[in-house]
Amino acid sequence: MNAEEIQAIFFAECEESLAAAEQGLAACMAGTQDDDTVNAVFRGVHSIKGGAGAFGYIALQGYTHTFETLLSDVRDGTVPITDALIELMLRALDTLSDHVGAARGLGETPDDAALQAELTAAMAANAGSAPAPAPAAEAQPASPPTVHAHDDDDEVTSDFDFAAMLDDITGSTSIAESSDAPDDDADTSWVVKVRPHAGAMRNGSEPLLMLRDVIDFGAMCIACDVSQVPPLDSLDPGTGYLGWTFAIPGEVDEAMVRDVFDFVGDECGLAIGDDAPMPPVRLPEPRALAPVAQAAPPIAAAPAPKAAATPMAKPAAQPPVAAAPPASAQTAPAPSAAPPPAPPAMGQSIRIELGKLDKLIDAVGELVIAQAMMAQRLAGDGLAATEELALLEGLTRDIQESAMAIRAQPIGSVFSRVPRILRELTASTGKHVRLDVSGESTELDKTVIERLGEPLTHLIRNAVDHGIEPAEERLAAGKSPEGTLTLSAEHKSGRILIRIADDGRGIDRERVLAKAIEKGLVVPDVIMSKEEIDLLIFAPGFSTAQSISNISGRGVGMDVVRQNVKELGGRITIESEPGSGTTFTMTLPLTLAISDGMVVNVGDQTLVVPLANVVESLRPEPKEVQGLGAHRAMINVRGRFIPVLPLYAAVGAAGAVERPEEGVLIVVETEGAGRAALLVDAICDQRQVVIKSLDTHYRSVEGVAGATILGDGRVALIVDVDGLVANSLSDAGQFAAGQFDTGFVEAA
Amino acid sequence: MTTATRVLTVDDSPSMRALLNHALTTQGFDVSQAEDGMAALDWLALNEVDVVITDINMPRLDGFGLIERLREGSRHRDRPILVLTTESSEDKKARARAAGATGWIVKPFDPAKLVAAVRRVAH
Description:
Chain A has a six-stranded mixed β-sheet. In chain A, strands 6-8-9-11-10 form a five-stranded mixed β-sheet. Chain A is α+β, with helices and mostly antiparallel strands. Chain A folds into five domains: 3-130, Four Helix Bundle (Hemerythrin (Met), subunit A) (Up-down Bundle), CATH 1.20.120; 151-291 and 302-316, no CATH class; 354-409; 411-589, Heat Shock Protein 90 (2-Layer Sandwich); 594-729, CATH 2.40.50.180. Chain A is elongated, with a radius of gyration of 38 Å. In chain A, 38% of the residues lie in helices and 19% in strands. The two termini of chain A are 36 Å apart. Chain B has helices spanning 14-25, 37-46, 63-72, 90-99, 111-121, and strands at residues 6-10, 30-34, 51-55, 81-85, 103-106. In chain B, strands 2-1-3-4-5 form a five-stranded parallel β-sheet, sandwiched between helices. In chain B, strand 1, helix 1 and strand 2 form a beta-alpha-beta unit. In chain B, helix 2 (37-46) runs parallel beside helix 3 (63-72). The longest helix of chain B has 12 residues, at 14-25. Chain B is globular, with a radius of gyration of 13 Å. At the A-B interface, helix 1, helix 2 and helix 12 of A face helix 1, helix 2, helix 3 and helix 4 of B.
């Protein structure tokens, strides 16, 4: 893995962090302001900061630091959560998003000076009342301890031969009792006295390694205090009885030495200077619980106050632990109220490069085809009932579903961008819009999700810009001054439905029609249904805005939305009620790769009808089909007349059944044109088909959604039912020729 | 023959894990990864390790909680555990110490210092 790859991971993570923070803030705004929520926001920003530092994005790091500091105050409860604060944090998040974009090279580094000042002000506003933790920290000046301890501290009074042992331990060769080594270069070298306490061995530390570090600086161990070693029977192996005196070369500064012992904090007594007494021995304290053992007198009966004996740390090392700041409330429960063993693997995930996943999906697609081909071959040999074949088919389907599920993601990742869009719209239009979101967890294919952003953004801009009225107009109409935008997603018969509904003024059909006539999109005295007029807003180059605003009228019209949705193999419909609002419904496939289809024969051709469209199939009695002019026919299906469309005519197949009563009618449901009955010769199979795009292999063809490879290796076209039906029914159409078709879906 | 020092890195940030992994594996360490304290506990229940490096702020079980849980049992009581922190304030250090951390590494870390810190606590 190289630096770029890690960087790519970081940016993916930034997106997630931003989304998580955004969600957290949205929850805060909605009134959920508990620790978890605030912490989620904090963690999002915190994690971006960590990466920014690691990758050297200075501006991003600096900005996140300010933001994080404020969030930290909020988390600790020193800054109260107010509406103004949430609003500030939302703006800060938007700028953070821009910063991330800039780091990625997708834009300019935002000018955040004013915002940073605001963020800082928000912290400072409360700094007075809160105990500022800052000054307590960082490097203590290197003042030698002023304690007056026993004179004999440094004296080696032992009659053991510790020198040899120490030689071993420290690797130093110059241990001498009351050595005069320091005199040799007294002018440059200085002395440090070290006595590791019991705690220095705790927590996986090893004092020996620290002493080695000191020696690595070129220090010399000039004395070892063994005076405190008790008789063997009262010796506690966990206690630090030994004290070492080192002569440190002059070029090594104190900070370096302190750094070595920084890890263990006050668990290692440190005294600087020849005159400083050796830090006293401290008896071990029971783990975790602070004050108890302090009562026990140190063996050496060092009368010096404890604080002074630990010059290394700030005066009271214990209190901050005991009087743990509020934040540790979340961490504290761990030891005793330990949650039950981790719910196994819940929420665990691994990150996979998308390319690998696509390869898997492709391979699974081929597997599905191969399986079908084999089934066909075996059927030809009279082995269709082979048990293993059914097993294989089941497994193939399982694998395929699992593979598709890997690509599936909750649509929430797209929805979470909406609040920001609305904030920007509020800023530029002055319209306040409340957002209702449902179905965020609805999953669909990643590619679909990724390509959904643009049309969704456009529809939302359109809804706020054109749909929702200014506050005065709303009040005059008896509505709440605040508009409402409803965003929802749901699964419906193998597709996903996404609705964007506003409670605005609805489509002004008169104006739309007038505009369309003016633009020459339709002939002047056309008679169109309400729905047809609504659909005109998707016509290329259509715009009803009296002045083109810079929001929804960026030179691209709603036709781009329609185009985007079409490219995803979906369709879009409009329901609008003057005065009460407009709802756009996008219907999209869950995946672009595989779908269930009905394989039918039409003359010399084999076609696939997507199962999602199929309602039923029937063999009509002659009297059930009624002619309607030369080329049209209707069939009465349970009291409902639906048009009969001969598929052979649409695809130009030769030798097909032309009389409905001789063939099979497949009743299909379409999104825009209601039901229709497709006339085919026969149904031969119903199975999964791997969709191959016709665009990439040939070109986009109207009425064809794609192609697939059948079990016998032949290529079959997949019928785009919606497009085909809509086109066929509007052949007598009222539109100016070729200008605009109501079939929204042509080919995937 | 010495075998590679085994390090478990615990961080909810995939990029941070990737960075740690890169910095350590290129220096011959045997690196495993966990995405939070819970995942680390699960992993440690089944695997052996020489040094643990953990982030503090993580979902489910944070770094302090992880260390406390590990120190409770006998198996990891003396395991060197380094804490990754973005701040080096005395307050943070005191908390890390109290939780039972062996040492800390300040983010953003310098790979050489990271390796030195790990080498220094590995025993």
